[in-house]
Specification:
Blueprint (H helix, E strand, L loop, with lengths): L15 H12 L1 H9 L11 H11 L4 H15 L7 H6 L2 H6 L4 H15 L5 H6 L2 H8 L7 H10 L12 H11 L7 H7 L7 H15 L7 E3 L6 E3 L25
Antiparallel strand pairs: 1-2
Helix pairs in contact: 1-2, 3-7, 9-10, 11-13
């Protein structure tokens, strides 16, 4: 049974970032030092979940420029972002999508997502209301959307406060550097290491990306993730004027770096 959240507080709720920073300062002195030198993130507005998920599929394994070009042509087929709805996506056949640069595999992913909406398995409303565990399970049922993509979507589109992308190389490298670990922590170790950050692991993850960016660690230029039942290398777009380690956050919703 899908569980729904009650009175969901998100990172775009007034005062929530301040509460998160207060908690992280008190629970982790090492992280507190990072908070002192980096401005806080802001989470401004939501893209409709269906649109954000379509974006995440279209940009997979593409450089920012190539992904943006394909996305622009995709919007032209749909009549703009307001026209990116399940019925319109299902109506686009593989030939039409291939003409604008969308592979047959990604076309299959887009149609699977759209059909799950049309069949009532998913909806924008249910996605917003589902608790984190239910949402993770349901979105992993969509072809082409795996753990890393779901985590990015939950943080940067839905602004969920307590998401830890355990497979993200940038966050793992940040944890290694922050705590002086000899080896890069395995995804299976991340939950225990970062337990002190609950219930604001999303914000702590943001500081890990900023930390690694400041260190200039090359490993954060891409993320190796287990989407679509295989390892994929995703190179995704940074926010404007900032080289963002996670390389893809701009696709999942409105997100602004602190200035």
């Amino acid at each position: 049974m899908v569980q729904q959240t009650e009175a969901v507080r998100t990172l775009s709720t007034e005062g929530e970032i301040e509460l998160a920073i207060q908690h992280l300062r008190s629970s982790d002195p090492l992280l507190s030092e990072l908070i002192d030198i980096h401005p806080p993130p802001t989470f401004d507005s939501f893209d409709p979940p269906f649109l954000a998920l379509v974006k995440s599929i279209l940009y997979q394994q593409l450089a920012y420029k190539a992904g943006t070009s394909i996305y622009t042509r995709f919007l032209a087929l749909c009549g703009g972002e307001a026209g990116v709805v399940p019925e319109a996506v299902v109506a686009l056949d593989q030939y039409q999508l291939r003409k604008i640069g969308v592979s047959n595999r990604k076309a299959t992913y887009l149609h699977d997502l759209a059909n799950k909406y049309r069949n009532g398995i998913l909806s924008d409303e249910s996605i917003v209301e589902m608790d984190d565990n239910s949402l993770f399970t349901m979105l992993n049922m969509v072809k082409g959307i795996g753990a890393w993509s779901v985590h990015m979507f939950m943080i940067f589109s839905l602004h969920r406060p307590d998401v830890l992308p355990v497979g993200d190389l940038g966050i793992r490298k940040g944890v290694q550097l922050l705590y002086g670990l000899e080896k890069l922590p395995m995804p299976s170790q991340m939950g225990q290491i970062c337990e002190k950050w609950r219930p604001y692991r999303s914000v702590a993850s943001w500081y890990m990306w900023k930390f690694v960016e400041a260190k200039g660690v090359p490993a954060t230029a891409a993320a190796l993730v287990g989407d679509s039942s295989q390892q994929q290398q995703l190179t995704l777009p940074p926010p404007p004027e900032v080289i963002e380690p996670a390389r893809g956050i701009v696709n999942f919703g409105s997100f602004t770096w602190g200035q």
